[in-house]
Design goal:
Pfam families: HTH_20. This is DNA-binding transcriptional ArsR family regulator. With 117 residues, the chain is mainly alpha-helical. It has a domain of 76 residues: Arc Repressor Mutant, subunit A. Helices cover 63% and strands 12% of the residues. A hairpin with a 2-residue loop joins strand 2 and strand 3. Helix 2 packs across helix 4. The longest helix is centred in the C-terminal third of the chain and has 15 residues. It is elongated, with a radius of gyration of 16 Å. The termini are far apart.
């Protein structure tokens, strides 16, 4: 992944409505949510939300799937994984002990329900 793709993804998330929309899409994986439902849940006008969703899609964080007249947005988890991997790719400068707390912080939310404490 190149620097411009990382910058695009991070800048897309650097806006409150887009960050909330992405998080909402992640919560509804693997099925995604229709654009209108995202707008309703975030209490944002649909035309404004459409602009935000398009921005996230251009950054590779969401994918739009047209189903009749409805556009459903799904989070691109693999792309976010690549962004996060890029940020810690060198494992904190070859010092894995620096990354261990980060991994520990992420693990509880991402572990299967039966492994969560």
């Amino acid at each position: 992944m190149d620097d411009s793709a990382i910058i695009d993804a991070l800048s897309a998330l650097a806006q409150p409505t887009r960050l909330s929309a992405f998080r909402l899409a992640v919560e509804h994986e693997p099925h995604g949510l229709p654009a209108g439902e995202i707008a309703r849940q975030l209490d944002v006008p649909q035309n404004t939300m459409s602009t935000h969703l398009a921005h996230l899609a251009r950054a590779g964080l969401l994918v739009a799937e047209k189903q009749g007249r409805t556009i459903t947005y799904r989070a691109q988890i693999d792309h976010m994984r690549a962004v996060m991997g890029y940020l810690v790719n060198d494992c904190c400068g070859g010092r894995p002990e620096l990354c261990a707390p980060l991994i520990e912080d992420i693990t509880p939310c991402c572990a299967p329900e039966e492994l969560r404490q």
